[in-house]
Structure of Sterol carrier family protein:
Amino acid sequence: MKKAVDAATTRAAVEAIADWIQNPEEVEKPGRAALAQATRMTARLLEADAPGHSVEVRVPPFVAVQCIEGPRHTRGTPPNVVEMDPRTWLQLATGVVSWEQALASPNLEASGSRAHEIAEWLPVIPLVFTDRNG
């Protein structure tokens, strides 16, 4: 049995690297451990929120999860796959970019008729970026 995902712990992992998620060109990339933790925890939260096995979400090199109700896939490449880099995933998972924006970028590949269904479950940890000057 899988360990339950704690939303508060996941939020803390995301907030630890929130500046980079929002402004990756302006902020130094977080360390591998912090990046891995935020990536894995948000993907596992999606898996918990949208249980099932119809869509596989891959964020190499850190995690792959199956989600969305429907037929279980057990061998070979699943028919519905969404794959992206950790930055794109974290931006999607936090609502910094929309599904449409991510899909239009070269950093996300989606295949299969049901791959788009993960958009209904995003963001998993919405980040509210406040104006620190105001």
